Amino acid sequence: MSAETPAEKPVDPRTARIGLGVVGAVVAFMGWLGGGLVALVIALALLGTPLFAVMGGASELAWLAHPDQRYQYLRFIAPEVLASRFAGSPILTTIPLFTFVGYLLAESKTPRRLVRAASAWVGWMPGGLAIVCIVASAVFTLFTGGSGVTIIAVGGLLYPALREKGYSDKFSLGLVTTGGSLGLLLPYSLPLLVYALVSGLDFNLAFKAVLAPGALVLVLMGAYSAWVGIRDKIPRQRLDLREALRATWDFKWELGIPVLLVLGIKTNLTEIDEAAGLVALYTVLIEVFVYRDLTVKKDLVRIAKSSMALAGAVILILAMANALINYVIQERIPDKVLEYMLRLGLDKTWQFLIVMNVFLLVLGMVMDGFSAILVAVPLVLPFAAHFGLGPFHVAIMFVLNLELAFCCPPLGLNLFISSFRFNRPVVSLYRIALPFVGLLAFALLLVSYIPSISNVLVVGDIQGWREKAERENRTPREAWLLECVQQDRSNPLPCSEADKKKYPDGQMPVVETTGPVTATPEAGTGEDLTDDELMNLISGKEAGAPAPGTESDEDLLKAIMGGGAASDAGAAPAPTSTVVPGQETEDELMKMIQGGPEAGP
């Protein structure tokens, strides 16, 4: 997510012919698979048509060409875009606010203060300055949401410092190029927010789950940097506690940004969009009035225009992608692809993980991060549900694939930005980036085949929901939503074999009785009621109330006055609305999960 683009260079005619040949081959292949409309859309995309136009146009063409005349209307692109799950999501407000904050920090002297503080604290370690680059790049990418901004700002500062310290040119270039995407796998990163929006995953728990795999990636990169520092005998700087404290003191106002964000959300004083608004205001105040790195007249309006142009483009792509998702879901395209895969014999989880990771890697190289998530999520989630993958496991694989794709030859975005920033041919960066790409690929391998890395920090939350359901004598539907990707989120089903045996078809187990054996219904389901009790429920009366037509004059008078049976002396007023355990809607389940296991219905 970067505003910078590589400088324009003359196009070699031979390269142009090869490129057009590849485009033609891809278009022909996709046309063979999906027909003329698919070939047209792919051709427009490969020839540089704006992505929002490709997605919106593809959605319109798909509905207009629908075999059923009832669906041949443009209005069918709207339901997913206007649904409350998208249009009412706080993340739509959060994206432009975080983007604005990122631009403010990139235009100020924050990168210098960040590098100084990181150098003072970890510069004494083996490979100290390289570890500084890793930490500073990750933190700055988290603040700004864009790998390109990090390469330009932090990489531009640290590359000459690394060379001066004695690190090789290849290692220094590879480190600053790869470091630009390391912050994507940290809490509150924008790609993780977008994934949570599209998939319906609770973003608070996603931010918690990402800590372990994010730390794994940083440790692997740090260990490699320390090994290079020892191998090349790079001199270390002495730990100066006074300098460390002074550098931290100079950086103290920026440290307030994550503190304000985390405290606002964790204390439930603010929602995430409100916290983002506070952070944006706070950043303006410190950069304009405290540090005075920026001015209101000269910088603030310019930065606001640039950041809102980018944020607006992202939200437009989000909207058009959701319109296309509406068609994909309606036509059950993922189910058809899954059936085809199973016929080919790809019916093992490890096989699917390989196919999914290759697909996400290629998609991440040819699209920006947000677009890749929007296109891939509705396609991949049905497969993940079929193979019983966990929602946090899938989320981490998505974002880690983006980190890898940004740095991976031949089309990784970071390679082109680094080529532009350091005036190097992009082809020369391919071999330089390979050791770091190998580390990220190893981390992806670990995360893919050891799901506990992604789930370890949310196990307690899942167990809390299980215990709550046990106390209320109902199925642990909230826990199932967090344990495995569901085909139908409004009707969660058991994930483990033990739960499938304990809760057949997602219902409470059969209760042994001396009479006829019947399944114990969920509380409030209305099963096993007499005709009179059913009539009472239909008419809104409590169990035990007089049947319709048999009320006494006193009962009728109470009903007219609004008291009903509950207005008897000493009786508590009936609640206006309740959430029946076991019958919650998807939105009610998500609200309960966000409130935690102690938040009852």
Q: Report the oligomer.
A: single chain
Radius of gyration based on Cα positions: 28 Å
Distance between the termini: 40 Å
Please count the beta strands (DSSP E, at least 2 residues each): 0
Large-scale geometry: globular
Uncertain regions: pLDDT < 50 for 5+ in a row?
Answer: 1-9, 517-529, 537-545, 562-577
Mean pLDDT comes to 78
Structural class: mainly alpha
Q: Strand-and-helix sequence, N→C?
A: HHHHHHHHHHHHHHHHHHHHHHHHHHHHHH
Number of helices: 30
Main β-sheet description = none
The residue fraction in helices comes out at 55-70%
β content, as a range? under 5%
Features:
single chain, 601 residues, mainly alpha, disordered N terminus
Report on this structure.
- The protein is an all-alpha fold and 601 residues long.
- Among the domains are: 91-300, no CATH class; 459-515 and 581-595, no CATH class.
- The protein has helices at residues 13-34, 36-46, 51-64, 79-82, 84-87, 91-107, 110-122, 128-144, 147-165, 169-179, 190-199, 203-209, 211-231, 241-250, 252-266, 272-290, 296-330, 333-343, 349-366, 369-386, 391-407, 413-422, 428-449, 452-455, 459-471, 477-483, 497-502, 531-538, 553-561, 586-595.
- Helix 7 packs antiparallel against helix 8 (128-144), helix 13 (211-231) packs across helix 23 and helix 25 (459-471) runs antiparallel to helix 26 (477-483).
- The radius of gyration is 28 Å and the shape is globular.
Provide a brief overview of the structure.
The protein is mainly alpha-helical and 601 residues long. The chain has 30 helices and no strands.
